[in-house]
Please model this.
Amino acid sequence: MHPDVAKLVEAGRISKEVGERLSQLAPGKFCLHKNWGAGKVKSWDIQAGKLVIDFEQNENQEMGLKFALQKTEVLDEDHFRAQKLESMGELRGLVKEDPVALVVRILKSLGGTLKLDQLERELIGSVIPEADYKKWWEGAKKALRESRAAVVPTKRTEPLVLRDENLTPGESLVSDYFEAKDLKTKARALEAIIKDFSHVRDDAEAQAKIASDIDATVRKGIKLHLGQALDLLVGRNDLMEVSDNLVLEDSALRLSDLIQTESTKIGDELGSLPAARQRKVFEAYPAAFGDTWVKEILGIFDTVGPRGLAEIAKLLIEEEKSDYLYVFLRTHITGRTLGPDSLLWICRERKKLAEPVFDHEVGNAVLSLLERDAMDSGPRKSSRLQTYFMEDKELIADLLEKADANEAKNFGRKLHQGQIFPELDRKSLMARVIKAAPATQDLVSGEAEQSSNDVITSWDSIDKRKAEYKDIVDNQIPQNREDIKIAKSYGDLRENAEYHMAKDNQKVLMRRKADHEKALSNVQGTDFADIEPDAVKIGTVVTLDAGGKKKEMTILGAWDSDPDNDVISYLSEMAQSLLGSQVGDEVDVVNQPMTVKAIKAYNA
Model:
């Protein structure tokens, strides 16, 4: 108790309890205010009932004694916030010299645990400049993990926890594993044990307990967390590889056992695992299935995601089973049954692992899948594939490199008549097709259409095309002429970027004008009236059944496509497979079997 306060207690003016609390606000003591932060008592006048405190946010703050007792909390002199008032130079030195010691000080002050946003509030601005904090914390995290002074969270929502200083590094590693509450956290703790295995190498008892716990944990978590269960079993195998004395009991669950019993679900569960982990699961397939392992692993090829299928392909090639892989891929490419991840991998690996199966048929398979996906209800599954198809400017040239004229024309026609891409994107893609295979020029020049009947479309679409043509002729071309005149006035045409841009735009506009004129001269308008719904025709709405799922599609003119509302052009591959079919017919719609359930006139 402070001597001045002790006199008041002895005189009976205040109680002993009040005296002890008052002594905590004696000059030189530290306290904490909700709004002003940490403070150090500068002076007091007990007789007048006042004191002065230097707070972080408010220096020389005069307060009444009674008010200060109510509104402040005690801070020990070794509390981190008190140290920020007294030893800021030392703390800033630790930022560079010993970040682990700095974080440990904060943790000890705050009960041994705190969230990362709390840590930021303690340091940013006062101890570490905000601009430097992110880089500093990345280094501090690494140092904390290596020192094992604290448990560093993998998520911001998890706390930073001070370790028991009495534990050895090995005991800390084992403790982290057994304190983990879920399979994923246990798997990461097991990785840490394997990484620093020297600390537990001589502790055979701990290794055996971990192996036993893994077995029990996996058995409990198989049904709900199959992917994480596989991850944990892979980790146990890694532990056995580095251990000199760990041997599994005969009754223990093996990785191959789990693969065999859950084979139909594994493909969908592995996507969240790192590629290296997936690879170790695939390497266990021979032990799980014996001579049929190649068939079984190819059975999940199209479901394991991009990382997994790449690892399966590498494994089969390394095991001299590449013939099986390429037969599988070729069969599914021509059958149009590969998923978007597989086709994307083939395109990306076209000059490496997938070279033996890469040709124009891959392009046809991509277009078929994109069209099918555009018409399916639910979320798009092929967005990444469509983006890649558009952005890889060498892809179409590579697809058509070995194609003959007919094969190139069929691919070009499929792309040109399809409604997968917006018009400008489709024109850009067709330009690549023509560059790679000049024989496809007539697909867009109108020569092919002129040699056959005019295309059919609705009057509304024709009016829309006419309006676009009118805008080009009446507005865009005159504006372009003005732009050229203005650009010319800048002088020196050789270095005049505005002039060259305007001239390039002139070429685009004249080509678009010619395209519109040619299209409008070769089109036949219709209102789709008086259509007999005795078979699927242009101007009909057809109801299809695909494995119990009903789907309604409208087949209209060449320019009427609206995939978002299930309206397709009669020139599309999907429509071509339906035209002429009647109610009850089984049809193959872009390699998907369907039954025609009903047909009605669009404009009934």
Notes: The chain has a mean pLDDT of 91.
